[in-house]
Amino acid sequence: MIAAVCSTVWSVPRCRGDELASETTIERGLKISPVPVNLHAKNRNTVGWGSYLVNAVADCGGCHTFPQFLIGGDPFLGTSRASIPPARNTAHYLAGGFCFGRVISGNLTPDLDTGLPSNMTLQQFVSAMRSGQGKEPALLRIMPWPTYHNMTAVDLGAIYEYLSTIPHAEPCNTSCPPSYPNSRDCPNPAPPR
User: E strand or H helix at 51, and its extent?
Assistant: First the structure.
């Protein structure tokens, strides 16, 4: 069955056409979220589509979850004979902390005070995804915004809506080079990437 994905975060409701998002894609998006989502007062279809984009298409966790996998659960360390099932670091999902030289990935989870994903309004989020300009004037040089700026307003709204439904998380690491205490959910050194 095909269903439209409608965004409730816009002043005028906008929907994805039936040919673009199917019920299975939305259900898949909800199923693959590594953390629970809070659907209270949210559009389930929009959140499912956003999760699908974040977790199956854009791989936001690849840069914004550090370390992405727990010790013993990094699927990239498997072999052609024996695969390793991924053990995602759900305690720090999308909390940032990955170093790219001296630049560190940001926390995308809802801010504890404002509840806004990455502490950005929808307009600020869309602007960052389209222009590479974050809340600070510096260009987001590591963020692949030149690719993501091609996403539709509905896609970016769905990603924002999904990010607003996930739990707040704190990063393991807040400095580059990484310096943080070793723990089960913050293994130091982090598993190789």
Answer: helix 44-52
123 membership: H or E segment, kind and range:
helix 122-131
Backbone region of residue 129 per phi and psi (left: phi > 0; alpha: psi in -120 to 50; beta: other values): alpha
pTM (2 d.p.): 0.83
Closest CA to 180 of 99, 118, 90: 99
* Terminal-residue alpha carbon distance, the chain: 39
In a 3-state reduction of DSSP, which class is residue 2? Answer: strand
Mean pLDDT by 10-residue block, N- to C-terminus, for the chain (193 residues)?
41 42 84 96 95 94 90 75 80 94 92 93 92 75 86 95 97 92 87 70
Question: Where in the sequence is the domain holding 45, given as residue range(s)?
Answer: 6-163
With a CB cutoff of 8 Å and minimum separation 6, the contacts of 90 are: 34, 35
- Please check whether residue 175 lies inside any domain of the structure: no
Residue 1 forms part of a structural domain: no
Residue 133 lies in a domain: yes
φ/ψ of residue 139, rounded to 5: -70, 140
Its sign, for the CA torsion 113, 175, 173, 182, is: negative
